[in-house]
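Hello,

Following up on my earlier ticket. Below are the two sequence lines again, exactly as submitted.
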Amino acid sequence: MAVYLDNAATTPIRPEVLEVLTSHLGVIGNPSAVNSFGQAARRLVEEAREEIARAVNANRNEVIFLSGGTEADNLAIKGLFEARNKDAPRPVVISVATEHHAVVEAVEYLEKHGADTWWIPVDSRGVLNLEALSDFLAVRGGDVALISAMWANNETGVVTDIPALVALASAQGIPVHSDAVAAFGHVPVDFAASGLAALSITAHKIGGPVGIGALLVSRATELGAQIHGGGHERGMRSGTLNAAGAKAFGKAASIAVAELAEESSRFSALTAQVVAGVLEIAPEARFSRGDADGLPNNAHFTFAGCSGDSMLFLLDQAGVAVSNGSACQAGVAAASHVLLAMGRDEAEASGCLRITLGWQNTPRDIEALLTALPQALAGARKAGLPN
Amino acid sequence: MSGGVDSAVAAARAVEAGHEVVGVHLALSRMPGTLRTGSRGCCTIEDSMDAQRAANILGIPYYVWDFSERFKADVVDDFIAEYQAGRTPNPCMRCNERIKFAALLEKAIALGFDAVCTGHYASVITGESGGLELHRGLDAAKDQSYVLGVLTTEQLAHSMFPLGATASKAEVRAEASARGLAVAQKPDSYDICFIPDGDTQGWLSERVGEAEGEIVDRFGEVLGKHLGAHNFTVGQRKGLNIGKPAADGRPRYVLEVQPRSNRVVVGPQEALAVTELAGSRFTWCGVGPANPSVWFDCEVQVRAHSASEPATAAVVEGELVVKLPKPLHGVAPGQTAVIYVGTRVLGQTTIDRTVAADLVAS
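Thanks for your patience. The regenerated structure is below:
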């Protein structure tokens, strides 16, 4: 049986979540319909909304259901920019060069339509330079529409100091959005305490199904809708509600949060085993986030002198599925923009490997990885760099 | 797997022959187009998806390997440099020589593969002497042995061409259809893959810029102006834009491109006739002649889709020299001359120089 260590891409659905999903797929009724069928379906959505709200410590009205992380990021960034430019021009959008493409591309879309963008620099571990942000805000704070910074990086697992970031922004009344797709379920995420204006989460990274996610939008935050229609979800996201999906998401979120303390210490131990094992096999390998705070289930490395796609191929052939970072269009593994932003050169950035754990992984999976790695690494070194 | 029908059927036949097959698509551009337009270009995301879908149907794993930088340096930049040097390169040949049967093959072998299998119409067989030989594909209309002429014995030993014995492209399409491959009716690609609109001259001008130069006849008389010698190829007749007609009223052809002086020499068709061509960058495809300095009978082909002509050849002072009893027309330095004996590819050389039948032309 092949070993799956690419849980940051998507996790296997948990059996209890699958049960919730399939048992509700047959429900009749549109949750927005007035009749009794609609009311029964609405009840499922609202139960799920409360489960999500509990899982991230938010008010139930702050949960906006939508299709997933990418949509949540787009709604937050474009919607905040629109709302913040209603009464006075605030042309500046601040984000980070290491963000997920869903954020980077949404920000660049705004740039194409007249926004000024400023990217918070990161150090070699991927940690945000908040001093640079503070300096920038001191000069242009009044022009800033929003800041978007991920809670944890999907490639390297490095965790952002959200309280410090929000403190800087709040001093000037700037709303902050955070993409917590990689973080949620792996580190504590408390929306109320965070002071964030908006937060993106999705089901399929925590043992739930693909196609359902949420944007948490604080009650104090105004947001322009990006998908127009029947005015569902407080007018912020129109479209028929996915009752079975929401219910499954609620179940997955509840389990993830209930098991978080236990699972994160289990993951930390397994990840430590991965890091120690990899560095023993390849002492020259570099653990990408270094000593910075990180997700317990993420181990990301660069290996000098070989290409990540060769390692991935050989590990895949040996029955161990890992990743080079985020999946790309047409499978072309371009050098990761995250690693380039962290100051790695193209050659180093092309030799990367990401190992991410999920609820189903056991110590045996780590053994399988570490058993297959020496040969994969030897072959990849022999094949060298592609270019 | 390019995403075309030939490589899909080649993969299918390799699977059926019992090999352990992995589909590999070469990413040759960092900025691939999204959709394919007609039969031009390749390496679009659509092509990659078509290749992946074919691999799915065959039940084999599929990966994309990025050779975009190697391709740019070894094929695209080489193509530009050759034109700038007044030569006429064949980029498909360079790609086979430096990417498909070099970079790709080396990487594949390092990763544990035994061979690269492609959809080229050519055959590798063991000859009477026991050595590996490359032969023309059975279907003369599709034969692609010319562009494989650069392969050496070592490369032949790690190459598989399952389509070589196929009677026709129609047969390949029918087989693809019978196997449920969606690419069965996909149009053939032609032209140069990295020039998607097919406008080679426009593409080159964008990269090397325009520079006004003179069009002269064989005797040095200036007949007109042009915007860059790279726009011209030996043998070209159209697009000369010479205001003054020839004294004899007959059409004029490009006889020579002189990049240093940015001059293009034109003249009558008979001045294009070449009786000898030679090159120092030659290779043998499989085992070469026992004594290459002794003249031997052969046939020579100078373009991918031209007929071959009877010739004699020998290695003389470090050059592979080919003599043509019947002159060839429009042979340009930079082109590849592939030497055949019967259906067998014996070797090839990049043409460095030619000897004109009408010596005035030189």
